[in-house]
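Hi all, long-time lurker, first post. I run a small reading group and we've been trying to get comfortable going from sequence to structure in the token notation. Rather than ask abstract questions, I figured I'd post a concrete chain and ask someone more experienced to write out its structure so we can walk through it together at our next meeting. Sequence below, copied exactly:
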Amino acid sequence: MAKHAADTVLERLDSTLSAPGLNRAILIVTLGALIAHFAVLWLGPQMIGSVHAPDFPLFVLFVFGGVPILAQLALKLLRHDIDADIIADE
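-- Answer (accepted) --
Happy to help. Here is the structure in token form:
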């Protein structure tokens, strides 16, 4: 039976999002954002404009760390690969 184009795209996305290099990069961004958050919290300015300055590293973390993980979960949902450990697998 021939594969559908959507299946091929999902497999490519899954292999890209599950790559060890991407997971390592997410880990590095997470650690860097936490260190930067506490450094700015203790040493840096408290406000930049109307935004709390220590929150900026956390915004970066949400974008560069959260989006790939949410994409991995969305792919599992699209493939109907839902089980009790859907979040624990990540």
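A couple of things your group might point at:
The helical segments are 5-17, 20-43, 56-78.
The longest strand covers residues 47-48.
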